[in-house]
Write a structure and sequence with these properties.
CATH superfamily of one domain: FAD/NAD(P)-binding domain
Number of strands: 21
CATH class of one domain: Alpha Beta
Strand order of the largest sheet: 7-8-6-16-17-18-15-19
Distance between the termini: 30 Å
Length: 395
């Protein structure tokens, strides 16, 4: 798929810390769009071994704020063309995304989101229970008699895509353009002189670079300590699981805003399921029995016939959460040091648009217009982008 260079050069035009989807996409677009091929992508582990390989591969654009909707709308557009662009089958399939409402107050938020979406050209509408039953006839709309479904936000372009295929395709594309990908190469420090980055210290020696991008999700606080900066990020675990393969039956992606769970069916037939963040701050990728018990309980309210289906695997990732549930992207007070963080539970769906906008930002040393609202300085300026209404379930 790509070369594995034995030696690090002494100097690169840019170093990207993190060989996940975002870091690899940024490297690819730096080389493709700006001819910047002397780029090194460094990772302490293996390619796609962080949150890129631990997410549940849902793509959507039905966010709440205009800033978020525009950003993810562009990502959705890029995803649709990505298999052809990278010449690799990413198993991108549009399913339709249903966010269920079990209370009238939740339904009011759905109407708000639908109006914002439609105003910005994103296909999205509120549907009542009778229409919902037609779209997804397998749902128990009475939800076991506990919290009946009163409506849903329906987003037809909602899709799933094979997450590891995205990472490997971007890696291959970047490699073919001359980018170097160095796995098992932890960054141990970042050298800064007079407010400007000079390069990175690694377990394999010092590498000089005038541009350094940190795209490391749950490891962001550690990287920020290396340059003496603080962020308002906290790390919380996010868990998911899959069942044994079943014959195809669930066409849609179903999310419950009140039960805090979601489920879709993969192209291999597994049910891919997850819930909200674990309710504690913890730097860990350990999964728990409490998570899968609670998830199964709520899932059976929606699909009671799944009682005999076996869960075969569960896992956890580390979510880098911001106070306003929006990412932090772009320049920092350290010249030449750029951030791609704060993705919480919604980072994978932004992979291609992060790549294009961060490549632009590194090449021009100014934020791409789409990411201007997501700068680190917004927390000092109280210019928050409140996305919790569309991201608190996370999927």
């Amino acid at each position: 798929m790509f070369r594995q260079p034995e030696r690090l050069r002494c100097e690169y035009d840019a170093v990207i810390i993190g060989a996940g989807g975002h870091g690899l996409a940024a490297a690819y677009y730096l080389a493709r769009d700006y001819g910047m091929t002397r780029v090194a992508v460094l990772d302490r582990g293996w390619l796609g071994g962080g949150n890129t390989g631990r997410n549940t591969a849902i793509v959507r654009a039905n966010y709440l704020t205009p800033e978020g909707v525009r950003f993810y709308q562009e990502s959705l557009r890029l995803f649709r063309e990505l298999s052809e662009e990278l010449e690799y089958n990413l198993f991108y399939t549009e399913r339709g995304h249903l966010t269920l409402a079990h209370t009238e107050s939740t339904l009011r938020t759905m109407r708000w989101r639908a109006e914002v979406n439609k105003h910005l050209g994103v296909e999205s509408e509120v549907v009542r229970p009778d229409e919902l039953a037609r779209i997804c006839p397998w749902l128990d709309l009475q939800c076991g008699g506990h919290v009946p479904v009163v409506g849903a936000l329906y987003h037809p372009p909602g899709a799933i895509v094979r997450h590891d295929a995205v990472a490997w395709a971007y890696a291959r594309g970047a490699d073919q353009l001359g980018v170097e990908i160095h796995q098992r190469t932890p960054v141990t420090g970042i050298r800064v002189r007079e407010g400007r980055v000079e390069g990175v210290e690694t377990a394999r020696g010092f590498v000089r670079a005038q541009r350094v991008l940190a795209a490391v999700a749950g490891y962001t606080p550690r990287i920020m300590q290396m340059v003496g900066l603080r962020t308002p990020i906290v790390i919380q675990p996010l868990q998911a699981c899959v069942t044994e393969p079943l014959k195809p039956w669930l066409d849609q992606i179903v999310v419950s805003a009140n039960l805090h769970l979601y489920v879709s069916q993969s192209t291999r037939g597994e049910l891919v399921m997850g819930a909200a963040l674990d309710p504690y701050v913890l730097h860990s990728e350990r999964s728990t029995l409490d998570f899968v018990e609670s998830l199964a309980d709520h899932l059976l309210d929606l699909f009671p016939f799944l009682g005999g289906v076996k869960v075969t695997r569960q896992w956890a990732g580390m979510s880098d959460m911001t106070p306003d549930f929006s990412p932090i992207m772009g320049k920092t007070p350290i010249e030449g040091f750029y951030l791609d963080t704060g993705w919480g539970t919604w980072g994978f769906k932004a992979t291609p648009v992060c790549g294009t906008t961060l490549a632009y930002t590194l090449a021009h040393d100014r934020p791409h217009p789409l990411i201007e609202p997501f700068g680190l300085a917004r927390f000092e300026q109280y210019a928050l982008v409140g996305e919790k209404g569309a991201a608190s379930v996370g999927h």
